[in-house]
## 1
Amino acid sequence: MEHITLLIGIVIITALVFDFTNGFHDTANAMATTISTGAMKPKAAVAMSAVLNLVGAFLSVEVAKTISGGIVDESGIRPEVIFAGLVGAIMWNLLTWLVGLPSSSSHALYGGLIGATLFSAGTGAIHADVVMTKVLLPAVAAPLVAGLAALAATRLTYRLARGRDERDTAKGYRSGQIASAALVSLAHGTNDAQKTMGVMTLALITGGVLAPDAGPPFWVIASAGIAIALGTYLGGWRIIRTMGKGLTDISPPQGFSAQTGAATVILASSHLGFGLSTTQVCSGAIMGSGLGRKGGVVRWSTATRMFVAWGLTLPAAGLVGGLSALLAGQGTWGVTAVALAAIAASAWIWVRSRHEKVDHSNVNDVNSADSGDGAGGAATPADTGVLADAVLSVSPPPTEAALAASGEGIPAPRQESSRRPDQQPTTV
Amino acid sequence: MNIDWAALGQVSGVSLVATITIVGVFTLGIVGTSARRSPAAGDATGTGTTGATAASAPSALARSGAYACFALCAAFVAYGIYLIVA
């Protein structure tokens, strides 16, 4: 550790920050349905997920060794570029968290790194075909495969358990769901913590601290594991709400089918060497289970917003990463400027997130009037339109709770149209 | 640009079959351990149809079969952990 320069130190801290955002961004993957079906209490669920992520981080270093070896040409990479890429990824993760949309943290990382490399080393350093086969194709395939599997499984389980009382079977389904969610958490810790380890190792290698073919040292593994576990424990409640309640209504059999499908797809794909995004797999599985139940619905408006976010992940994180790379390439002041800008933007996003707070206490609350400390009940009807508009622009899709809160505790109707700013609740 | 259709197909096929199998087996376990819904169950009163063997508890055979199903699922989970670690 003695030869680490300031720049490498900054890169490593940034990588850990990314790891942290990755953790709280992806808590939803394993735990959204577990929480929304009531299989586990919110706090207990994120705690279990955090522990399993930490354990998972120590299980393997295979992914860490390959992260640097494909998408970008590592010979042209300098620590500033990695730093810029990470900044792009962090910004995208925070922004999607603010609006409560699940999007792939891995894609954000790839996008940031690709953008930073493009802007600093030119197009030659990007392996376009690798981007296509490792990022774009899986992004289309993941939700389809997982959705199909969950759809078929949901159909099957409802058919088989036809003659049974739902109250009687719910407990069993919930236990099964916990097991599946645990597997997803463990796999997530193994895969995603390793991505950060890989980036940290890459930075250490480019800085000449480690030999080119070295694996991650222990302190890298430990710090990456702890960062992702802390992020997971903090919980990205906004995204959990979208995935658990926003995409579709989930009952225990559906939650079990979706989570099992997701676990299976993640394990099968990582075992067979076909990288799929955990987030996309889980979202797809949840939608599939929504379609699989008789009378089940998928809220396509929310789903569409999510798809748009997926499409934007790579270019948006890439753009931020690229601009940061341009600035950081100017020398020490450039790096400092990027770091300060990133901190300022994060602080702004955090402040915005306080306006409509979503945490463990109201994560399942889509329909009840829970006036947090945000758009409180003091709003006069005249403000409601403006407020709703503001809320719409920054808040997670299922904003019935927010609207209900701004409408002085009137339970909002569940229809999508009720969220339009021009249609205020008129009852009472 | 060579898209690895074989890997994609393999992942899809394996995922589909495995998910359906596991969910199916687990559901059989649940069916085996839960009581059959009597015809008059639900929110109706127990006046039900003629001589309904109301909410008959599962037989010993069904119960042991169900435990075998759960054991199989536990084995799947163990294999999953093995895949993560390996």
## 2
Amino acid sequence: MGHEPIRSLELRGITKRFPGILACDHIDLSVGEHSVRALVGENGAGKTTLMNILMGLYHPDEGHILINGTEVHFRSPNDAFDHGIGMVHQHFMLVQNMTVVENVALGMQSTHKLFRLDLAAVRKRILEVAERHELPVNPDAMVWQLSVGEQQRVELVKTLCLGARFLILDEPTSALTPQETDELILLLQKMSRELSIVFISHKLNEVKALSDTVSILRRGRIVFEGRTENHSSSDLAALMTGHEVELPRVDSTGIDRSGDRGLLSIRELRVLGDRGNVALDGVSLDLAPGEIVGLAGVSGNGQRELAEALNGLRSVESGSVHIDGVEIAGSSAARIIGVGMGYIPEDRNTEGIVPSFSVRENLVLKDIGETQWSTAGFLRLKAIAANATGLRERFDIRCPSTDTAAGSLSGGNIQKVILARELARGPKALVAVYPTRGLDMGAIEFIHKQLLERRKEGVAILLISEELEEIMNLSDRVAVIYKGKILKVVPGKDATKRSLGLLMAGVVDE
Amino acid sequence: MNKSGKLAYNTSVVIVAIAAAMGIGAIVFAMVGADIVKAYMVILTEPLKDMIGITEIIVRAIPLSLIALGIAIAFRSGILNIGAEGQMLMGILASSATAIAFASLPKPILVPLSILAGAAGGALWGGIAGVLKARLGVNEILSTVMLNYIAAQFYTFLLRGPMMDPEELVTGSGTPQTVRMPKSAWLDRLLPGTRLHAGVYIAIGLAIVVFFLLWRTTAGFRMRAAGAEAKAARYSGVKVQRYLVIAMLLSGAFAGIAGSVEVLGVHRRAIEGISGGYGFTGIVVALFGGLHPAGIIPASMFFGLLLLGADMTQRLADVPANMVLVLQGAIILAIVSARQFMNNPYVQDKVARAFSRWFGRPEPPAPPGSIEACPDPSDTPDPCLADDPEALAAAEDAASKGKAPEEASR
């Protein structure tokens, strides 16, 4: 196939149906040379489906793809590669226990000689590409040793090595830290001088920073197309969700909590990590009733271990944890749940819900033994169903019926199921870990409002997040965790992105 | 697709699958030089021709269903019990030892007592694997298979030694078997002239019990949660390890009861080869029946028919019984593959649309608003690409590797 540059790429009337869904509805999209097109929309709007069609992973039911004015048919991703289209998926497609060179070689058919693999040629190509696009990578590093940001770079290098001149990036920043995100955006800006980029995201500040033009998808249709610079983030958010989005903010002015005793009080907590390392090294934190404390930090600094230890899922070496005066350090998960701890775990699909269980079963997962849902060991199916109907209404859980398997819902709706279960239990304290990770604006808005409402009701909330904006919007106080220690606690209104970013990197300004 | 369309679709898939399996079977029969039509007639109709045939199917279905029920409990709770064979043997030993030792007890006491003893024997053997898994993380497939070997040797040892019928020593024939059970331990035969015994009530009763246990009690709820997603169950305060052990105890108990019922109802003494592979066929019955009592009962009847048919073809159609086992295997593979089509909404939708295209009644396009309710289509490889291996592999890659970086960073 030719190595001519892609001067224009056009999608005309692309339509794709899935059972019960019209995923793409006559979508037209055209991208010119050296431009960055942002494709934004809520989860399930059809962004990823559209790009998978462009990559030859799906075949469109209707519509055409044109490159430089000529129609092309992609039967498989290889066809798309041959035309110079490359995609970096949201979840990295790297073999963890292979080196960078080996990973890149996987896709480079030209280096697959009859009885050997021409790794030297691959290495040369990697270094070439890395230098040209300023993407430093170590070709001999094992992938699992690399940080998420570095893996992202490897993905980019890999795609470019395969000769991509048209890049599709599916939510490239979803796993990155704020610093890594900034770096990536700078990098992509430079790359756009030589390449065309389609950038899928629902983070509007990144869209604003990077893209020239923006297309907004809603429920399978393009609802808006225009130059990014002419529209503000909030305009775009409104177009994306179909209504005005105003993320709520906490108002902590004039509240004096100095007299309150801690509702959730953590003292000198020491916890070991999976590899026997010290994951938490003497963490102390006090949460007053009706207070949201944001725990900021780059993931892997002990957040996971803290959440697990607080919920009885990880043994505590030393230290104490009290909820409302009751000692819970080292107790079983069941007892801690009984004392009134709520928990929104990090991995909603495997820790938050049982995916094959119905929505109504998941809503009573924690309390099935309570007399409300069972009598003498027998389930009260009617009560369980009625509970689900009520919560579905109250938490706006969109599901065909409460009998549907929870795992088949979209991420936002799964999170609402978890939220509904945890909040309906009337917890005294709540640990929320990355509660809005990967969700769209509408769902984020809903979850933030719910958390603030619980705050008003006097629940002590520990919000663990990497999204600084989320932390600053919601927290009365922000604690920064670094290498298993709380570096500093600052009042929410004094926190800035810059100061938190520095603290997260371990820099304490004296 | 509407409900009746779905039913028609699923029915036709099953029919095609069975036809495919019988096609494979026909080739096998042709290869051994048997009369294909006659062989099939014998397998499928001969057992149903008279009362003896029908009751013999049920006699085989009783232990199969009991074992399958136990296996369903274990599988639903997330533990793969491959050890029903060994658990059944231990059940037989415990049950017969009890029946022989307490021969003087009246029937209403002795029968339940020796069945309970059988349950305890099986539960003990299953519980070992459960505790090993819960406490030490020993893979249950490994431990149950190994426990099968131990049980088989232990069984043979007892039958040839301590529990051997003294008569055998006197007469010198040395057949490895126990003495005949006292009459007070026998399960009643229900129809004169047949071997149909009261174990059938036990099997049906326990099927109902299992349904209620798994789907109507808190214990069952927790066991299923632990089996479906152990992590989420643990996060919700379920003591997953404890329920693992309970599930294995129950699973073993069911295999033990199966053995007990078999020995008290059919053979009336413990003999060698009594388990007859029921412990393994029971696994197939359980999976075939969808790990649900309502599926297990008919599935056990179907396999009872096949087992009996296999015996009969050997006698009547000159086809070695082993060949019928090949047919069984083909049927299982075909049905398991057919499942893939039955439960796949993408294929269903495709067929429905092709169907309406051929017959001119257009299917209304789905409303775009239904997106929310459904999984992100990008998460599932599109089966429409099944004819394109590269695309499918790429799509599967996308699904399977999705989690890798995240897991590695933990």
